[in-house]
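User: Earlier you gave me the apo prediction for this protein. Now I'd like the version with zinc ion bound, so I can compare the two side by side. Same sequence as before, with the ligand SMILES added.
Assistant: Got it. Here's the input I'm using:
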Amino acid sequence: MPAESPAEFTLFPLLPPELRVKIWQTALLERNSIVELRALNDTIIPRSQPPKVLSINKESRYEALRAFRAHSNTLSFSNGGATQNQLYLLPKRDILYFSNDYKVATPSTVQGKMADMAGTLSLVASSLNEIDRAKIESLAIDIYEWSEVDHVRDIIRELLPFGGLKTLVVVMRDPVEKKSGTDRTFVEWPWAQRKQAYDLQTKLWKMSRHILRYHPGWREPTIKLRLAQFLDRPLFPWKKLIVGFSLAQYLFESFLSARQYQVLKNTRPPKVLANEVSQEVFDKSQAYGRAKAQFSFVSSLYGQIQNTAFIYYDILPKLWTLTGSWLLQFAPARFSGEISHSIVFVLTFIIIQQVLSLPTSIYSTFVLEEKFGFNKQTPKVFVTDILKSQMLAFILAPPILAGFLKIVQKTGNQFFYYLWLFGAALQVFMITVYPITILPLFNKLSPLDPGALKTGVEGLAARLNFPLKELYVIDGSKRSAHSNAYFFGLPWKKHIVIYDTLIEKSETEEVVAVLAHELGHWSLGHTTRLFAISQVHFFYIFSLFSVFINNKSLYKSFGFHTQMPIIIGFILFSDALAPMDTVIKLLMNILSRRYEFQADEFAQKLGYSSELAKSLIKLQIQNLSTMDADWMYATYHFSHPILSERLGALGWHGDKSGESVVDEKNDTAVKASGRDEL
Ligand SMILES: [Zn+2]
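And here is the structure of the complex with zinc ion:
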C-alpha cells in the first residue's frame, strides 16, 4: 500500500516566499475542475467546496484572490438583491455543473426535473451580468436519457444568453454509483448503454438544429455526453509515474544503444580476434551490427509510441468495455462472469499486439536478415508460424488464465502462495510437455543417426553421469541458420538437442566441446539454481501483487472507475514494476555471464579447450555476431561474455598450425533469428 504522506510539514514557513507562492498557485490548479451548483428557491447554491487555498492562511488567500482577480474570474450571482454569492472560477479550465437531485428522479418525476433545469439555466443567466455570462466557456447540465424532446429544446434555448459557451457537457445519471465524496468527475458513458446515449444524442442534435433555425447567429457549443461520478481522488499519480518509468527506461536504453553504435563504427577488430577474422568478415559483422542497431532505434521508438498511446487514450478500459459488450451480445448468460470476460479480453489483446508487431517483424525478417543472407523463412513459413502461435495462445491462454483468476478469487488474502504453487506446477508441465507437443509444431526433431558424433556425446554424458535419454537433431535451418545445442527434460530423464546447422558447420570434436560446455551448466548446478531463482522471483511478484490488487487509485488513474478486474490489475501492476525488472535483468545478466565463464572452464578441464575456442570463433563468424561491445551496453544487455573475453579466459592464443580456424572460402554466412549463443 502506498505510504501515507505525513500530515504535517512544520518546516513550510521556513521555505523562501517565492517557493511558497508557487506552492499556493499549484494548489489552486489541483482543485477539482468541476464546480457543482444547484438552484434552490430561486437561489444559486454552490455544492462544491470553494478552493481550499482561499482559507488556509492570509498568504494563500492573498495569492488565490490575486490569481482570480488577475483574470477577473469571479462570478457574482445576485440572488434577489439581498445577498451576493461569489464564485471563483478559472474559465479556461473549470466546468460549471448544474446538477439535479438524483435521489428523487424516477421516470415519472423526470419531466418536471427537466422543466426545472430550464428554469435553473434561466435563473443563472439572469443573476449574472453580461460580462460574467460571457466568461463561462464550459457548462455541464443533467439531462435524463428519457427526457421529452420539448424539454430538451427548452433547455438548449436557455443556453442562448451564454455568449462565450464553447462546450456543453450533457451529464447522465450513473445508476451504479456509490457515494464516497462530494466532488464529481465525468467519465465516458458505458458501452453497454450506448443505445440510450445514441437516442439522447439524436434528440440533442435535432433540437440544436431547431434552435439554429430561429437564431442563425448562435454559436452552437460542442456537446459531450458524460456520466457523473463522485470523485475518489487518486492518492498517487500512477499514470504519470508509469509513463515516466517507461520513458526513463526507453531513454536509458537508447543512450546505451548510442554508445554501442559508436563501437560498431570501429574499422579494426579487437586484438584477440585480429588473427581469427579477416577484415572482410569484420566489416560485414560491423555493418550487420549497425543495421540491427538502426532497426532497433526505429522499432523501440515505435514500441514506445504504442505504449504511451495505449495509456494516453485509455485503450485498456475501452477494450475491457468493448469485450464485455461482445459477451453480452454473443455469449450465453453463464459466460458473462469475470473469467470469461478476462479470457476474451486477453485474446483480443494478443491479436491486437500481433497485428501491431507485424510491420517490424516483417521488416526484420524479409529486409534486414535477408540483406545479410540469414533469412531462411519463406513468406509461407512466416505466416503459418504466426497462425500456429496464435492458435497455441488460443488453446493455452484460456485454461491458464481461468486457473489464475479462480485462485485469486477463491483463496482470499493467501492467494499469492497458491498462485506461486500453480506457477511452479505449470512450469514443470511446460518443461515436460513443450518439447513433445509444441516444439514439433514449429520444428522437426529426429533422433541423431549413429556415428562418431553420437558415440562422442554419449561418452561425454556417461563420463558426467548425465541422465541422457535421447539425442535429437533439430532442423533449425528451416528458419534460421542458428547454430546451437541445448538439453531439456526432468532431472532424471534428459534429452539433448543439436541444431543441424551446428553439425554441418563443425568438426565432430567441436560439437562435443559445445556440449561439454552445455553439460557444464547442468553439472555445476546452473540450471537448478536458475530455476530456484525464478521461483523466488515469481513468489516476490505474486506477493507484491497481493498488495496492489486492491489499490483503487491504480485502477482509477487508468480509467477503471467502477470495476476492478483482476487481470487488469495484474497488467497495470507489471507496468508499475518495470523499473524493478530492469534491475533484475541487469543482475541476472551479471550472474549469467559468470555461469558462462564457469561452463567454459568446465569444458576446458575436460580437455576441450581448443575445440571449444574454435567452435566459438566459428559460431561468431557464421552468425556475424558483434565482435566488440561498449562495456555499459554489454553489462546491461548481454547474457554471455563477448568472444574476446571468453577466448582470453580459455587461454586461446590462436591455432598452432597458424591457419585461420575458418576456411573462409566455404564460409557463407548462415543464421537468422533466435538464440545464437552457447
Ligand atoms: Zn552457456
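For your comparison, keep in mind: Residues 517, 521, 596, 599, 678 surround zinc ion (CB under 6 Å).
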